[in-house]
Write a structure and sequence with these properties.
Blueprint: H1 6-16, H2 29-38, H3 44-57, H4 61-66, H5 69-76, H6 82-99, H7 108-111, H8 119-130, H9 139-148, H10 156-166, H11 172-185, H12 204-207, H13 218-223
Helix pairs in contact: 1-11, 2-6, 5-6, 9-11
Length: about 220
């Protein structure tokens, strides 16, 4: 296996996607938090179409905290899993108002106490709202990191640990955003467009001669 050049990968992604940012539309802190919750098993495009009416119906965090989950459900049904997501949003709003004075907390430990918030969401909030480093191990991050040879795991927690050890802190959040953009534009799950990929020279998937129509698993990449 060719030695992985992290600086090269980081720089090439930065050149290809200079305006790395979260794809979700939001105004206030809690709006991003709730939009991220809605994005589970749903596309950012669908969430962005859904949240304007939701945030108009519940213009403040206190409005969400006073709402019944069934009231929220009516607005978020297109995002799927609407009952669980509505319950999490209302409970989260109540905790934010009761415990954190209406602010989204700025530590991982506190964020993880919020209903519906896991490490992926917590790291995204820390990076977007507070500029803190962290790895957002979503499906794009896991898939591309495996193909690039940056991890041998598909477990989000392990991928997060592996990338934390490789990616300089100042690049971590933007690196994850760029993986999402690259995953959508070039390195798709079913058929990566390796011929058009700026990371060809860095990618273990390409260097090991994988068929462009069939992505190797991360385990296969490190075992070959």
């Amino acid at each position: 296996m060719k030695t992985i050049d992290i600086d090269s990968i980081v720089n090439k992604l930065a050149a290809a996607y200079p305006e790395a940012r979260c794809g979700l539309v939001f105004g206030r802190e809690h709006e991003l938090l709730f939009a991220v919750r809605l994005s589970a098993q749903c596309t950012d495009a669908r969430v962005n179409k859904t949240v304007p009416a939701l945030f108009e119906a519940f213009p403040t965090l206190e409005d969400f905290a006073r709402a019944q989950p069934r009231d929220v459900e009516a607005y978020i049904r297109p995002c799927g899993y609407h009952r669980q997501k509505a319950r999490d949003i209302v409970l989260c709003a109540q905790r934010l108002t009761d415990v954190y004075g209406g602010r989204v907390p700025d530590t991982l430990e506190e964020l993880l106490t919020l209903p519906g918030v896991g490490r992926k969401t917590a790291n995204l909030m820390l990076g977007e709202l507070y500029g803190k480093p962290g790895i957002v191990a979503d499906t794009h991050c896991i898939r591309l990191s495996g193909r690039l040879g940056l991890t041998a795991s598909k477990d989000p927690s392990r991928v997060e640990r592996d990338l934390l050890a490789l990616i300089p802190p100042e690049h971590q959040i933007n690196f994850c955003h760029r993986l999402v953009l690259h995953g959508r534009a070039v390195c798709g799950a079913r058929k990566p467009d390796c011929a058009a990929c700026a990371l060809n020279d860095n990618c273990q998937h390409v260097l090991k001669g994988a068929d462009n129509n069939k992505a190797l698993s991360s385990e296969e990449l490190v075992s070959k």
